[in-house]
Specification:
Blueprint (H helix, E strand, L loop, with lengths): L5 H22 L5 H9 L3 E3 L4 E5 L5 E2 L1 H14 L3 E4 L5 E3 L7 H9 L17 E2 L14 H11 L14 E4 L13 E7 L5 E7 L11 E8 L3 H15 L10 H8 L1 H15 L6 H11 L12 H9 L1 H10 E3 L5 E6 L10 E3 H14 L4 E3 L5 E7 L3 H10 L15
Length: about 400
């Protein structure tokens, strides 16, 4: 898992200090709500009907047990004891009080988290396949590329005031668990004839009031061209995108109105201008980032306990059939913890449940948790011999619902 550099730490702390002063000015009346609005949105703070809502970034859905416990602490200390995991791998707190928000952001910074660019007309949280690094069908782990894009897009001076919000998703598997075709830019890893990885680049996907499927603008982009090509897409959109009507401002409308062939031509022309400006620093950074995503030390042990439980216990078997996915290591499984208990709000987790999931990840899951696009929590690396004990603990906490991929697993 990526850890903050000294620059990351200083940057996030400076943003907390800056927003603390802005909140103070709003509270003493120096700033009107109209003046404060763009400042709070830059820090993920929305004003809803009855209260503020704070959206916290979980880049590419990867969260550590320490971070999950801090989210539980925030839920208990400044909210109503629960959080809401979203379809874009973030978490939202729906009841924070404005004077408390700087303290919340400070608590997030203590565990290398923030709420920067979770709102506003900028590049939002970069999402990825929630089974990354574990899936049996994976070409390569997409998270290093997502982290590279996160660092590049954070506070990017050219793309802080786009025509509308902008969402990027990356997958390393042919099974599109990252829903890349429904994003402003979707990146799907493929291989060329020599077996070298690259990306199919899709542009102009989206849901909302005008759902559209993204169009492919490049069938196979070499990984060394990733940043300049993404920058070319954003540059073209920043020029063409409409600012007169927010309902027609997303890139999907720009692609539709301009035409796939013409916008592809414009992207390629802009890419040709930008590519010579990239001299390899991005690839050096990517190599450094990759080191943070090395696979865990997998345990080599018998799986007899799992096989016996699966044969003997119909409740466990039903859960295993729906909530487990094949792992690249045959002795392991990917566990999806459903946050869709019958009668409960999809995506909600109490602070107690967050702490339990953190404990289980440390004990059985190589200290790795993910948030899925389906608003569930993933333990990507669990040895099969530990699954019966894990299932019992989840069931006791109301987290053992066996419905992943079924109708009740609704988002």
């Amino acid at each position: 898992m990526y850890s903050y550099s000294d620059f990351d730490e200083a940057f996030v702390r400076s943003r907390v200090a800056q927003f603390t002063q802005q909140v103070e000015r709003r509270l003493d009346g120096s700033l009107t709500e109209e003046e404060f609005r763009p400042l709070r949105l830059m820090n993920g703070l929305y004003l809803q009907l009855h209260a503020y809502m704070l959206r916290i970034a979980i880049p590419y859905g990867t969260v550590s047990p320490r971070q999950m416990r801090q989210l539980a602490y925030i839920a208990d200390t400044w909210d109503k004891g629960y959080g809401h995991f979203t379809t874009r791998q973030n978490i939202q707190f729906n009841w924070p009080k404005l004077p408390d928000v700087p303290a919340i952001l400070g608590a997030l910074a203590d565990v290398e988290m923030h709420a920067i660019q979770t709102s506003g007309n900028c590049v939002r949280n970069v999402t990825a396949d929630h089974f990354a690094g574990a899936a049996a069908d994976e070409i390569a782990d997409p998270r290093p590329y997502a982290e590279l894009l996160r660092q590049w897009s954070t506070d990017h001076p050219e793309f802080q005031f786009l025509p509308r919000k902008f969402k990027i998703a990356v997958t390393g598997s042919p099974n599109d668990r990252a829903v890349t075709k429904a994003h402003d830019i979707g990146l799907r890893m493929v291989r060329n004839a020599a077996g070298e990885p690259g990306f199919e680049v899709m542009v102009g996907g989206g849901l909302g009031r005008t759902p559209m499927i993204g169009v492919t603008v490049r069938d196979l982009l070499p990984e060394a061209d990733l940043l300049p090509y993404v920058e070319a897409v954003l540059s073209v959109y920043n020029t063409l995108g409409r600012r007169d009507n927010k309902y027609k401002a997303r890139i999907k409308i720009t692609v539709h109105e301009t035409g796939a062939e013409e916008i592809t031509r414009m992207i390629e022309a802009r890419f040709a201008e930008l590519r010579p400006q990239f001299h390899g620093a991005d690839q050096k950074l990517l190599a450094e980032i990759r080191e943070a995503f090395a696979p865990p030390a997998f345990r080599n042990a018998p799986t007899d306990a799992y096989d016996a439980f699966y044969a003997a216990d119909p409740v466990f078997r039903a859960w295993a059939d729906t909530n487990l996915t094949a792992h690249r290591n045959a002795q392991y499984a990917i566990v999806t913890i459903s946050l869709k208990a019958h009668g409960e709000t999809p995506g909600d987790a109490t602070s107690a449940q967050m702490r339990l999931m953190a404990d289980l990840a440390e004990t059985y899951g190589h200290s790795d948790l993910r948030i899925s696009h389906e608003q569930n929590v993933i333990l990507p690396h669990v040895h099969k011999s530990d699954l019966p004990t894990l299932h019992a603990a989840l069931t006791q906490a109301g987290l053992g619902t066996a419905n992943v991929g079924l109708l009740s697993d609704i988002i």
